[in-house]
Amino acid sequence: MARLDRAAVIAGAWDFVEASGLDALTMRKLASSLGVHHGTLYWHVENKRALIDALAEDLLAGVADIGPKEQGADRLISLAGRLRSALLSRRDGARIVAGTFVRQPNTLAFGEAAIDAARDAGVPAEDAALAAFTVQYFVLGFTIEEQSQHQLLDSGDWPTDTNAVDAGRFPLISAALDTLRRVPREAQFDYGVRRIVRSLTFTE
Amino acid sequence: MARLDRAAVIAGAWDFVEASGLDALTMRKLASSLGVHHGTLYWHVENKRALIDALAEDLLAGVADIGPKEQGADRLISLAGRLRSALLSRRDGARIVAGTFVRQPNTLAFGEAAIDAARDAGVPAEDAALAAFTVQYFVLGFTIEEQSQHQLLDSGDWPTDTNAVDAGRFPLISAALDTLRRVPREAQFDYGVRRIVRSLTFTE
DNA sequence: ACCTGAACACCGTTCAAGT
DNA sequence: ACCTGAACACCGTTCAAGT
Fold first, then answer.
1. Superfamily of B6-45 according to CATH
2. Which residue stretches of chain B are H helix?
3. Which chain A residues have a beta carbon less than 8 Å from that of B141?
4. Do B173 and A108 touch (CB under 8 A)?
5. pLDDT tens by residue, chain A, 204 residues
């Protein structure tokens, strides 16, 4: 067995998360899946928090690297789509990224690119960060919900009655959930992002 | 010592979170703070997840109960402000609410009120849920960040260098962080919510 | 430089038995 | 109905000692 290094630990962590989910990820179980004593992991990674932060950074690699061909509002829309794709590319990706409160390069690069795109789309400089923030939280919120519903459906843990909101007391939510089930996620997301970006960049 | 009931467990959990934070909350430590064996808690509450869900529900009590005097976009803005106030009223309130993936009455009532307000503000019925969703995630994201910065500042764990984003590589983020430090949180939030709501409810 | 063994100080949850 | 004792099956992290 090849000697372990930090990259191998991260790769192993992804395999583990893909197979068993973020909640099951444990330093001890990860170590054993890598064929190594669990104490060993601490040679390569500071602690569990740092490992998950590293997963988030890994997931966001390249997301901000967008060509100069897209301009204005389209660039912000594009960034939002790239972020969602990256989050969806791994199980629990959205939760992994949302949980990290860090200032790591790829995370910062995304923020920087989003603010830049907002400015390019005509948002006044002092509001650009707010616009970028709004888009980012929409993507994270949307995708967290999306991924957790995937899991619930996969696990069969959501038979209908958990989902069945009392339509008498909450008619609007019931209707919204119905729409959510009918319309493809992709279309919902596109529509939502477009509407948010357009409205944020609307100059009066 | 009075006999324990579910309400006392929840009250004790709030006291504990207020004193030590959500991350320190443990069934065992909570039990001992209540002067009771930790097995006892499971008589009053199903498990730890259910306890935290109950905290979230508790926090959201009454947030949706808004008088009929506010109409249209103002009602949605009001709801957003009420949500933020509720989240801020308890330590780690935003994280507690964001972590719950549940369909409990107060949570649903807030969603219902927000969708209703969006419709009242002129958002077409089929987009109202999206608008409500966007506002809700803005408030949660904003307040999570706000509260975690409180803690970092309180703990003195953020001396300047962790916060000091490389201004050369990320000039826009650096500038945004600077603004964030200068402008009062309240004003930022109000401004942000107003802008989002106004743009979402803007009819072309 | 990298890994093991062993320990420390914890967890959440269950459940017979008590009152 | 409510609580204790005791157990089960885990955790993350550290660190001397090995190679």
1. Homeodomain-like (1.10.10.60)
2. 6-20, 27-33, 41-44, 48-59, 73-88, 93-98, 105-120, 125-155, 171-182, 185-200
3. 133, 136-137, 140-141
4. yes
5. 568 999 999 999 999 999 999 999 999 999 999 999 999 999 999 999 999 999 999 999 999 999 878 998 999 999 999 999 999 999 999 999 998 877 899 999 999 999 999 999 999 998 999 999 999 999 999 999 999 887 766 665 544 444 578 999 999 999 998 888 899 999 999 999 998 998 888 765
| Shortest Cα–Cα distance, A196 to chain B (Å) | 7
Between residue 151 and residue 170 of chain B, the positions with Cβ below 7 Å from nucleic chain C are none
Domain boundaries, chain A: 6-45, 65-200
User: Is B32's CB less than 7 Å from nucleic acid strand C?
Assistant: no
Rounded to a whole number, what is the distance in Å from the CA of A142 to chain B's nearest CA?
A: 9
Comparing C-alpha atoms, which of B32, B101, B111, B46 is closest to residue B76?
B111
How many Å apart are CA B62 and CA A111, to the nearest integer?
35
d(CA A1, CA A8): 12
Cβ-in-10-Å burial (0-12, 13-18, 19+) of A107 comes to buried
The highest-level CATH class for domain A65-200 is mainly alpha
Cβ of A45 near strand C (under 7 Å)? The reply is no
| Interface check B183 vs A, CB under 8 A | no
Residue A187, both tokens: 């279309």
